[in-house]
Specification:
83% helix, mainly alpha, single chain, 87 residues
Length: 87
């Protein structure tokens, strides 16, 4: 049977679990409303920054994979043409 790569789903589940856990932890902490709002704001800013970094890294991976596929496609077309195939 073919194996499926679920790493994207695993990362998403991990991130979602972290978000929920952090939010619950902050909300249940014995702090004043002002401190809680400040902590939530700081946490949100940090999470947004990490999410942007993650998305940029994944974007770079996808671009590299696209370049590999394009190169393989062109090499296949050239090999087909060189072998006497029609283009």
């Amino acid at each position: 049977m073919a194996e499926h790569n679920h790493s994207g789903e695993t990362v998403l589940a991990f991130l979602l679990g972290g978000v929920v856990g952090a939010a619950v932890g902050v909300l249940l902490a014995p702090c004043s409303g002002e401190d809680t709002r400040r902590k939530l704001g700081d946490w949100f800013d940090e999470s947004r920054s990490k999410t942007k970094e993650f998305i940029e890294k994944e974007r770079e991976v996808l671009i590299a994979k696209k370049d590999q596929v394009s190169a393989a496609w062109e090499a296949g077309k050239k090999a087909y043409h060189d072998a006497g195939g029609q283009s």
